[in-house]
Structures are given as C-alpha cells and as structure tokens.
C-alpha cells in the first residue's frame, strides 16, 4: 500500500517549526511534554481553584538539546517516528554523527528517557565533544518543591500542589528523580561509539518514583530500555492498523493522528491504572492559559472515544471509569443548579465539579451529559461488559443521567411535548435557546439507552424515562424537511461548528435520506470556514452516507489546513488559533475514515458496514477491530469486501459471529483464521443467530 518510497509514519525535517507550540509531543498515559519544552505534566495533577484549575507545571529534566562547537558542514535532522514513539535529533559531519533520542516510555509510564549516541564515521582519534544545552531549573509556579537526598545517582525533588480544585479537595504530591545531565559529553580518542542514557521518573509517591527509577536502571543495564519501549509501541500498532492505498498526505495524517491519540491511552494489561481523561490538547499541553487548561470536555467522549473503542476497549473502559469516579461531582453540579441526577461538567478536571472559567458554558452547554452517556452506550453495545454497569458504578451513572434529563425538561401544554429551555448548543455562537435539536436528541438517546440497560438487568424502568423519551420535542420543519438548530432558528444564520449534522452521525437519529441531505445542504454553507477542525469530518461522514464520495472528500480535505508541518500537529482553527495538538480534530478525522469510508455504525445488536470512498483511494485495510471480544480485519476495495476473524474470545460460552448481507439476507459464519469475501455493499456483523 505504498505511495512512493516515503514512510507515511515517519516525519523528518531539517528544521524545527518557528512556533514552539507546534513541536512534536512525547506522551504516555501518565506523563507528557513537548519536545524542547521546560515543563512536563502528570495525568490528573492539577493546581488552582475551580475555574483557575490547570495542569500543574513540573520542571522538565528532559529538556535537553545537543549543540557542537562551531564546525562547518554539519547536517541536522529532526525526526518523529510514530511507529516507535520516538523523537530524534541527528547532527552529522564528515567525521562523526551524534544522535539524541527522546521518548515517554509507553509501558513503564512513570518514566521518560533520552539517550545521546556519538559514533565516528572517519578514522580519526581526536576527542569529539557534544555540548548539552540544559536550561533545567527545579522550580514550579504550581508546586511547593523541596530537594530530597540523591537516590542511586539521581537527584530528587518532591512537592505538593498549592491550591486544591475545591475546598478540602486533594492536593497531590509529585515526586521526581532524574539523572544529572552534564554540560558536555566526550567520545575519547580510543572509542568508536558510545551511548549515554538519562532517566526521569515521576510518581505521586516516593516509593513508586524510586521503584520506577530502579526499574529503568535495570533496563539500561540490560541494554533494553529503548527496545522495551519500541516493543510496546510495536504491539500497540499490531493491534490497530488503518492503512489505505491512496495519497501520501492522507496516509501521513492517519498515522500522525493515531500516534498522538494512542500516546494518551493506558498501557495494555494494566487494568488498575487510574486514568484521568483526555483533554483537547493532551498531556503535553494545558498549562495555565493554554489549551483549555488541560480540562476534559465532550471532545473526549464524542470525538476521541469511538476511535479508541474500536481498537482498544480496555482503554475505552478506563475513560468511562474516569467519568464514574467523577460522578459525585456531577451529582453536585446538578443539585447546585436545582436539578436531580447527574450533570457532567462542560469542563472537568480532578473532581467532576464544573471548572469552566466562564459560567455560561457550564450552565448552558448541557449536551455534554448526553455525550458522556453515548460513550457508555457504544461501549456496552460492542463489549456487553455487564460488570462495568452492574458492579463498577456504570448503572448508577446511567440512571443518574436519565434522572437529570427528566428533571431538566418542562411540559409544554401548547405543543403537548417536553421542552429543554435555555441552553447553548454545540454551535456556541448561540446561547439561551430553547430546544436545541442536538441537545434534545442526545437527551432522548440517553433515556432510551437507560431504559434498555434497565430491561437487560431486569430492573423496572421508571415510567418517567419512557414518557420523556417519547414526548421530547426534536425540532423539525415539515415544510422545508430539515432540522432547525433550535426553536426560532432562521435558515442562513451563521453556525460556529458541526451541530445539526451530528444528528445523522454519531447520533443516528432516525431520518430519511432526503432530510439527511437537506440538513447537510442547509448547514454546510453557513458553517464557519475556519472553525474547529473536527467540523468538516462530520460533513464528510454525512456525504459518504449518501454515497456522494467526491463531495465528502472535498469536506475532508478542508481538515488539511489544520495540520502543521513537519510533525503533523493539528491546530484547532485553520488560522492557527485555539488549542494545539488538537486531539479533537484528529478524532473527528479518524472517524471520517473509520466510520465514514467503512460505514461502520454501532447498534444495539450489530456492527453495521456500508463502504464508500473517493476515487483516489483504491483499497482500505482496517485491522484490530474489537467486537464482543473478537478481533476483526476488514479489507475493502471498491468491488470487494473481505472480513477475517484474527482472534476469538477465550470464553467457550462466547457466541460466534456471522456476517449478514443486507440486500440478500445471506448469512455467512465467521470462524477464526478464515476469511470471507463478498461484493462491497451494506451489511452487518452480529452474534450468530439461533433462529
């Protein structure tokens, strides 16, 4: 599937971006930084009260850059290898090469590391000196840092955050150990090559920091620290393949987006890891005044989560567990606004309390509560993991969200239906509106899902849930056959971002093809051209649904103006404003491929497909799709679709899968290791029917 010889997963440049915000990021589930930045962040460690809470800045010992005494003809390259999760800087002359490699260890998540290797290229015996620029100062505006005794050759500092998120709330303590960095390294005359390795260990206990540092030293002694990291990335990529026979920029955007998103997820096989969610700019960003302070929005649940769920349900579960752990904060939010149940915050940090610095969003942009529940729904319908709901707090959350929506509705005698008044829709240009079509539709979906889960668990379904779901107003103009964004919306009014088009996907709100087309045509020309990056992906999915493949590609191509060179960092807005390393935009883009080109739709009983892709793509391969414990590989061309079960669940009670072709009704069993193929058309994968 190559387009020329260039590897679409490796981004190399002879210069760095002039804007430091656009540097590559090295991140794992616990630690993150931008390359050559003087701070790093720890997952879940915030400082500041309520609206001022932000990721706590921790001084970064890995902010090191190589330099050499002035020499002529030095070649310099900077590379982000997304296959190995490694950033490298190479300085090369005719006599020698110096290589700096930097990474956040993917499986040993408390470790960040870098190495410097100097290698002779010519038969000289002169000493070679590489200088290391290390502007590290062990101070922080967010922590009360203290110096502790050295440990196994490492320096040690520790300190507590200064201000809790809420009064009486937690103030985490951060412990950090790091290998001291000299001002220069020398390859002596008798040496041909030498490497130096430097470790940083960060944890919220002294014991864990020291254990991690010692473990890192043991890996260094065995010569396997970096190889263990690259092995973890190789394993991650083996379980998650998306590639296509198409233009190189599209393939690069896919690899880049997957790398930055996969960098954030908990390591496999570590179910006890406490995950604290994904913010729009990831762990590398979110200091005070930047990238929404590192808060968690609907961006996680609506835009990033579905991509993670398709490949790594264990990581998806960790995201849901973050929402379950912050349920008490959501219950308190609803109570403070005079409602029952749980209202998830527009901006969430450590506690689930509302931490948006501007009150209007927290008060009015309530669709986030339905967005959270939709992630739970998608997870439930692809895993049937009843334990999360029965034993681990999932059902309590589902029921609390349903209760919130019922208490948020008011009955209209005039229209004989329920209204939700005074909200801000996803289109944030409008506020204080009644009956936002997206908000009301997602509320309806929440209630229907809650009722379905209750029935599955043989729990009586409150009549109120059924009544509110059945009778909520979902605005529709029967004359023009389209969905107005809210009561009183006038066609042609400018819209900030994807809003009504989200009814078709991801909400899958019932509508005819004619209405779906009308919604797309009504809102496409009035949506801000340089608005948030995820918008055009959703228009693309809509046009793909209607098999308007070139029109879809025109929309998806708009995303490329949000991708910066050379490291494929996304910016929120195409003019460069807003969040950087904008994972939300990447998530939308990935959904356009993973749900758009394939036509994947998660339903209560099946994983539907209906492939459609544009003329310049000949073949799409998606491997590692998880469905009821199985792993599936899809290979799609314009003429044919091939499905293979590459892995089956270990549980002998698990039902096997089958493919059902929509047009003929033909059912084809799916057996592990065997491929089935059929003409590319609509159908679905389901548990084998016993009828």
TrEMBL record:
Q: Which InterPro entries match?
A: 6-hairpin_glycosidase_sf, 6hp_glycosidase-like_sf, Glyco_hydro_65_M
Q: Which UniProt keywords apply?
A: Glycosidase, Hydrolase
Q: Which Gene3D superfamilies match?
A: 1.50.10.10, Maltose phosphorylase, domain 3
| Substrates-to-products reaction catalysed | (5R)-5-O-[alpha-D-glucosyl-(1->2)-beta-D-galactosyl]-5-hydroxy-L-lysyl-[collagen] + H2O = (5R)-5-O-(beta-D-galactosyl)-5-hydroxy-L-lysyl-[collagen] + D-glucose
Does Iron show up as a keyword for this record? no
UniProt family annotation: Belongs to the glycosyl hydrolase 65 family.
Instruction: Specify the protein name.
Output: Protein-glucosylgalactosylhydroxylysine glucosidase
């Amino acid at each position: 599937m190559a387009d020329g010889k260039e590897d679409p997963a490796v981004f190399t440049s002879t210069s760095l971006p002039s804007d430091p915000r656009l540097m590559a990021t090295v991140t794992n589930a616990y630690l993150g930084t931008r390359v050559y930045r003087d701070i790093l962040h720890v997952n879940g460690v915030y400082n500041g009260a309520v609206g001022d809470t932000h990721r706590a800045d921790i001084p970064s010992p890995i902010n090191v850059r190589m330099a050499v005494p002035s020499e002529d003809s030095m070649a310099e390259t900077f590379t982000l290898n997304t296959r190995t999760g490694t950033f490298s800087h190479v300085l090369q002359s005719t006599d020698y090469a110096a290589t700096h490699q930097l990474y956040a260890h993917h499986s040993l998540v408390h470790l960040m590391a870098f190495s410097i290797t100097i290698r002779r290229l010519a038969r000289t015996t002169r000493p070679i000196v590489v200088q290391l620029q290390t502007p590290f100062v062990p101070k922080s505006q967010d922590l009360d840092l203290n110096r502790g005794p050295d440990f196994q050759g490492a320096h040690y500092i520790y300190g507590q955050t200064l201000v809790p998120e809420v009064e009486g709330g937690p103030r985490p303590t951060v412990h950090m150990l790091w290998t001291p960095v000299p001002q220069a390294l020398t390859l002596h005359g008798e040496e041909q090559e030498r490497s130096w390795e430097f470790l940083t260990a960060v944890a919220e206990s002294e014991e864990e920091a020291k254990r991690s540092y010692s473990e890192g030293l043991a890996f260094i002694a065995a010569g396997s620290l970096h190889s263990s990291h690259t092995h973890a990335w190789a394993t991650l990529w083996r379980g998650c393949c998306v590639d296509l026979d198409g233009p190189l920029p599209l393939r690069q955007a896919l690899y880049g987006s997957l790398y930055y998103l996969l960098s954030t997820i908990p390591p496999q096989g570590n179910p006890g890891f406490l995950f604290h969610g994904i913010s729009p700019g990831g762990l590398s960003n979110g200091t005070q005044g930047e990238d929404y302070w590192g808060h968690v929005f609907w961006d996680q649940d609506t835009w990033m989560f579905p991509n993670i769920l398709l490949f790594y349900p264990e990581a998806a579960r960790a995201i849901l567990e973050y929402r379950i752990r912050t349920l008490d904060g959501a219950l308190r939010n609803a109570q403070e606004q005079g409602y029952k149940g749980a209202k998830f915050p527009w901006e969430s940090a450590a506690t689930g309390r509302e931490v948006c610095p501007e009150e209007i969003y927290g008060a009015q942009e309530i669709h986030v509560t339905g967005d959270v529940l939709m992630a739970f729904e998608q997870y439930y319908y692809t895993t049937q993991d009843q334990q999360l709901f029965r034993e681990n707090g999932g059902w309590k959350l589902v029921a609390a969200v349903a209760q919130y929506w019922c208490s948020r509705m008011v009955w209209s005698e005039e229209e004989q239906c329920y209204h939700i008044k005074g909200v801000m829709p996803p289109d944030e240009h409008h506020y204080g509106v009644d009956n936002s079509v997206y908000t009301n539709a997602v509320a309806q979906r929440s209630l229907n899902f809650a009722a379905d889960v209750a029935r599955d668990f043989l729990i009586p379904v409150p009549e109120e849930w059924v009544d509110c779901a059945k009778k909520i107003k979902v605005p529709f103009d029967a004359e023009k056959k389209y969905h107005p964004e809210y009561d009183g919306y006038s066609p042609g009014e400018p819209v900030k971002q994807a809003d009504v088009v989200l009814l078709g996907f991801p909400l899958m709100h019932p509508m005819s093809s004619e209405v779906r087309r009308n919604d797309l045509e009504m809102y496409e020309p009035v949506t801000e051209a340089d608005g948030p990056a995820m918008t055009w992906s959703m228009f693309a999915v809509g046009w793909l649904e209607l098999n308007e493949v070139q029109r879809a590609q025109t929309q998806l191509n708009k995303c490329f103006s949000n991708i910066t060179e050379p490291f494929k960092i996304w910016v929120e807005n195409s003019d460069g404003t807003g969040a950087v390393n904008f994972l939300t935009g990447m998530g939308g883009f990935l959904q356009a491929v993973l749900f758009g080109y394939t036509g994947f739709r998660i339903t209560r009983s099946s994983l539907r497909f209906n492939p459609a892709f544009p003329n310049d793509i000949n073949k799409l391969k998606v491997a590692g799709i998880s469905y009821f414990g199985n792993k599936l590989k899809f290979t799609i061309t314009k003429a044919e679709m091939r499905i293979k079960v590459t892995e089956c669940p270990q549980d002998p009670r698990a039902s096997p899968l089958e493919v059902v072709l929509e047009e003929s009704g033909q059912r084809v069993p799916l057996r592990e290791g065997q491929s089935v193929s059929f003409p590319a058309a609509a159908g679905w994968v389901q548990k084998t029917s016993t009828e």
